[in-house]
Amino acid sequence: MKLSYDDVKRYIAHINLKKIGSFGQKKIIDTKVLIIGVGGLGSPVALYLASSGINNIGIVDHDKIDISNLHRQILFNEEDVNKFKVDIAEKKLEKINSKIKIKKFKTKIDSDNINKIAKGYDLIIDGTDSFKSKLLISDYCYKNKKILICGAISKFDGHVFVFNFKKKNSPCLRCFMPEIPTTDMMDCQNEGVLSTLAGMIGTIMANEAIREILNFENSLCGNILIINAENLLIKKIKLNKNKNCIKKIK
Questions:
Q1: Domains in the chain, ordered, with CATH?
Q2: pLDDT per residue over 199-237, tens digit each?
Q3: 230 class by beta-carbon count within 10 Å (0-12 exposed, 13-18 middle, 19+ buried)
Q4: What radius of gyration do the chain's Cα atoms show?
Q5: Taking a C-beta distance cutoff of 8 angstroms, is the pair 236, 204 a contact?
Q6: For 5-49, what is each residue's pLDDT tens digit?
């Protein structure tokens, strides 16, 4: 199926890029993406993927919007406080792209529901703030050969991981973090976090999702991208495959 006339008009700036073209834009439109956590990271990811042409998005979050979220969760405003994040996210994304199909999951991801929720999606975005959830999502994507874009932020530091389990020898999150740390939650409220850091990391996650969809060279897969927003330092560190981590994947 070819791009429609409206699609060509809408995405002409993508199509005019030789490395994307109409074929690449069609791949973007056809890819199904699941965003787990639509907070500080999930907000910019959702906005950019919806704007870029992802027409089938699942969103998973059980939380309601709190006034303290507004300094970094750019999908929401003051009128949205005390409403469920997935409900507001759906409305905002549909205003960006009327063709978009949103499926909401007003729940917390866990071992009992992850397969039912994630099985129909090609690419998973992990914007959660729990190490337990992150390992669960990584293990699931490893077993089911999905692409996973994972992000984390705290204080002034942000991390981005890309795992493409369709490729041989891709490391997984357990290669970096074999077990759940003693402190499971990344607590932005108590530890603090710079508002713009969420946008920086979330935008890079959206960019990496598009790069994986289009199979660009120099994938971030196998590396950790670390950004310190205080000093604007950016590092890319090699993440080696640990064969022993497979034994820990349930």
A1: 31-248 (3.40.50.720)
A2: 999 999 999 999 999 999 999 998 999 999 999 999 999
A3: exposed
A4: 17
A5: no
A6: 999 999 999 999 999 999 999 999 999 999 999 999 999 999 999
